[in-house]
């Protein structure tokens, strides 16, 4: 098992043989022995794909039985740390899940100082054993879910990002396969919760199938989008991939195990903002939403022409998209 910690800057790491730092971004010097710009790679896309350039590099160059991903400040906590985390770290955003409050995206996380987080891992025993046990009975390990205030992933996305990209994604999936498009439209319109930040641990066979679906979709989507000027919003493919991961797991009926996760640094203010937090941004959001209503209708019409997907009793064949 290797859990890759994706980072664009040097960070202190827990001393665990299961955790390995992987460098992404355009830094002139190497701060990690492992970097996403060797071999078969898409490192040049990091400005728009963010942590996904690490996903692609690992997928193409470093197969292993079990693979996982954390970030430079976000870590999944192994089962042996669950009880310790309950008394040593707070969930400061639990009361902030009101509509339009960006803190709700972090409500399931625990926040602690980095030194405290490293100390937890250093005394956690066998990290690999804890996660491997979970994968004996589940297909994938994810961070604890966050509830979506409106139960609508499309609206949730549009409150924080330009909405045209998620409608373009739905349109692409519908054009590619009516059955898949209908399922995606129904899921994004009705999802009541989500697992954020592209944190997960799974077997290689699942990761391989997911990456095939993910990158095939995003590479085709690239030609359809006009990228935002804002450097944060240009990471659109990473933002979309968070939603695609949730959809893909649901569509393939994968069994999940949820674990606690921690944020080891303060969350930047721009990540707590939504279009509701500023009147000017609210006006932009409203205009963007109205502009893309035609795409909503297109997705809905394509969905209506597609065969319905049963909601229960779907046999799990072990095959993935």
Quickly list its features.
disordered C terminus, six-stranded mixed beta sheet, three-stranded mixed beta sheet, 321 residues, alpha/beta
Q: Can you tell me about this structure?
A:
The structure is a single chain. By secondary structure, the protein is of the alpha/beta class. It has one domain (2-304). The chain is built from twelve helices and eleven strands. The strands form three sheets. Strands 2-1-3-9-6-10 form a six-stranded mixed β-sheet. Helix 8 (178-190) packs across helix 10. The longest helix has 19 residues, at 204-222. The model is unreliable at 306-321 (pLDDT under 50).
Describe how the helices and strands are arranged.
Elements: E1 2-7, E2 19-23, H1 46-49, H2 52-61, E3 66-71, E4 74-76, H3 82-88, E5 110-111, H4 114-122, H5 127-137, E6 140-143, E7 146-147, H6 153-158, H7 164-176, H8 178-190, E8 193-194, E9 200-203, H9 204-222, H10 236-251, E10 256-259, E11 261-263, H11 279-291, H12 293-304
Parallel strand pairs: 1-2, 1-3, 5-11, 6-10
Antiparallel strand pairs: 3-9, 4-11, 6-9, 7-8
């Amino acid at each position: 098992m290797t859990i890759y910690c994706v980072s664009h800057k040097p960070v202190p790491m827990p001393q665990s043989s299961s955790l390995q730092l992987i460098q992404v971004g355009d830094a002139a010097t190497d701060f990690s022995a492992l970097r996403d710009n060797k071999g078969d790679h898409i490192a040049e896309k990091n400005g728009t794909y963010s942590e996904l350039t690490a996903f692609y590099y690992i997928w193409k160059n470093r197969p292993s039985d079990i693979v996982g991903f954390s970030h430079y400040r976000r870590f999944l906590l192994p089962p042996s740390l669950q009880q310790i985390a309950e008394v040593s770290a707070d969930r400061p955003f639990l009361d902030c899940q009101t509509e339009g409050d960006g803190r709700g995206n972090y409500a399931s996380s625990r926040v602690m100082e980095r030194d405290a987080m490293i100390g937890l891992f250093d005394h956690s025993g066998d990290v690999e054993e804890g996660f491997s046990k979970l994968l004996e009975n589940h297909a994938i390990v994810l961070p604890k879910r966050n509830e979506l205030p409106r139960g609508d992933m499309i609206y949730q996305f549009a409150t924080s990002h330009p909405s045209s990209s998620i409608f373009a994604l739905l349109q692409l999936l519908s054009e590619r396969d009516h059955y898949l498009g209908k399922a995606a439209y129904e899921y994004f319109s009705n999802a009541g919760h989500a697992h954020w930040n592209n944190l997960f641990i799974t077997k290689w066979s699942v990761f391989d199938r997911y990456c095939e679906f993910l990158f095939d979709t995003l590479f085709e989507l690239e030609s359809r989008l006009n990228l935002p000027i804002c450097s944060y919003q240009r990471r659109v493919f990473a933002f979309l991939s968070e939603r695609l991961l949730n959809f893909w797991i649901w569509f393939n009926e994968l069994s999940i195990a949820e674990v606690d996760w921690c944020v080891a640094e303060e969350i930047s203010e721009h990540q707590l903002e939504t279009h509701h937090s500023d009147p000017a941004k609210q006006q932009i959001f409203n205009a963007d939403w109205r502009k893309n209503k035609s795409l909503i209708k297109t997705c809905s019409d394509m969905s209506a022409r597609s065969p319905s997907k049963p909601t229960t009793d779907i046999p799990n064949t072990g095959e993935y998209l």
